[in-house]
Specification:
With 413 residues, the protein is an alpha+beta fold. 31% of the residues lie in helices and 25% in strands. The chain has 3 domains: 216 residues, FAD/NAD(P)-binding domain (3-Layer(bba) Sandwich); 53 residues, no CATH class; 114 residues, no CATH class.
């Protein structure tokens, strides 16, 4: 039997690949492997997002999201520019549709200041109309540092660099069972066995199931939410040069249907946030019997329905009705016509839900026996991925290279 890896990372999304990169840099003497169940890296949450590079405006000061978003953003942009991956700073306007939403803009402005984002400012209705004549709003928060990027290209380049440096990135291997032994873990799947002295679980949509297979009772369960995007017609592209967001609902960790230019010259509207019946259910109506059974047995499902039933019904309708989706877009851009809605694409967000039905809004990483489990890494995890990876290595007790300051701030569970 071959020697065990010093470290195995389960999951080949941007967080898992970034984590492999950090561990390899800190401990080049270690053997490191990445196990990905698909035939290519970055095919799920990494490859199904709108490609936004977030600035950290929304997140509660002191939270992991707030700290790691800012740290990770700088590292991500530096990597993309160095590796010639498409990335652009286009800015963002968070638009208040009426006077009742203006206090929320003020709150986000305070959060931005507390999080160290000094470039954010309030703009009034006249400047808003001058900049975006087609927008519907009474004011906005201007976030000039927001950007767009090709996240799948980042994942593919990370894989290439890791493999050149001797890290094993193995695709087509689904970890189905795990057993602890004297020398670490035995991970099995697809008729193969891989051994590891230490494991980092970055399995995204499957993260809580991998944690359970490794004997860890996660404080949250993954409930999938599908987000649908529409590709908008070319006539709108020049009118919308920046990200345009509505003011989000304060009781939800979703940002609402927004407008996003893409690095390849397109324009997206979305996503909504419809409860999915399959962890990889990218089509409306797609369901999985095992996922339905898990949701039926999960105590948080009833609480989720009680808390968010009306929201869930509205978002579900938007998945089925182009008219309902068009109405959501028109709240911020009234000029959008039915024939502007082009091809639809979807992603699935791994949303962590607690046993009382409440949605977990921050990153959650749980310690296990010779393992760490990333059981909640929603947006802005892609933006923050390089910083999340550094914190995972810190939590594993692997020192940073001389001259690098250790991470401070909130700790993982």
């Amino acid at each position: 039997m071959s020697e065990p890896f010093d470290l195995v990372i389960i999951g080949g999304g941007i967080v898992g690949l970034s984590t492999a990169r950090v561990f390899h840099r800190r401990r080049p003497d270690w053997t490191v492997g990445v196990l990905e169940k698909e035939e290519e890296v970055g095919l799920h949450q990494t490859g199904h997002s709108s490609g936004v590079v977030h600035s950290g405006v929304y997140y509660r000061p002191g939270s992991l999201k707030a700290r790691l978003c800012l740290e990770g953003r700088a590292a991500l942009i530096d990597f993309a520019e160095r590796e010639r991956i498409p990335v652009r700073t286009v800015g963002k306007l968070i638009v208040a549709g009426d006077d009742s939403e203006l206090p929320r803009l003020e709150e986000f402005a305070h959060r931005a200041s507390a999080n160290g984002i000094d470039s954010v400012r309030r703009i009034g209705p006249r400047e808003l109309k001058d900049r975006l004549p087609g927008v519907a709003g009474v004011g906005a928060l201007d976030v000039p540092t927001a950007g767009i990027i090709d996240y799948p290209a980042v994942a593919r380049r990370l894989r290439e660099l890791l493999q050149k440096e001797g890290v094993v990135v193995e695709t087509g291997l689904t970890v189905r069972s795990a057993a602890a032994g004297a020398d670490g873990w035995r991970l099995e799947g697809n008729g193969k066995e891989r051994r590891a002295r230490f494991v980092v679980n970055c399995a995204g949509l499957q993260a809580d199931l991998v944690a359970a297979a490794m004997g860890v009772r996660s404080p949250v369960a993954i409930v999938p939410f599908r987000g649908d995007f529409f590709h908008l017609s070319p006539r709108l592209k020049e009118s919308i040069p920046c990200l345009v967001y509505p003011v989000p609902d304060p009781d939800l960790p979703f940002l609402g249907v927004h407008l996003t230019p893409t690095v390849d010259g397109g324009l997206l509207a979305g996503p909504n946030a419809a409860l999915a019946l399959s962890r990889e259910g990218y089509r409306p109506g797609q369901w999985d019997l095992e996922q339905l059974a898990r949701m039926a047995l999960f105590p948080g499902t009833l609480g989720l329905a009680r808390r968010y039933g009306r929201f869930a019904a509205r978002e579900w309708m938007r998945s089925w009705s182009r008219g309902s989706y068009l109405e959501a877009i028109r709240t911020i851009w009234p000029d959008v016509r039915p024939d502007d809605l082009g091809v639809r694409s979807s992603g699935v967000r791994a949303q962590a839900v607690r046993a009382d039905g409440s949605l977990e809004d921050d990153f959650v990483i749980v310690r296990g026996e010779r393992a760490l489990h990333v059981v909640n890494a929603p947006s802005p995890a892609a933006t923050a991925s390089f910083a999340i990876a550094e914190r995972i290595a810190d939590a594993a007790g692997v020192p940073r290279p001389l001259g690098e300051e250790s991470s401070k701030g909130p700790t993982f569970i």
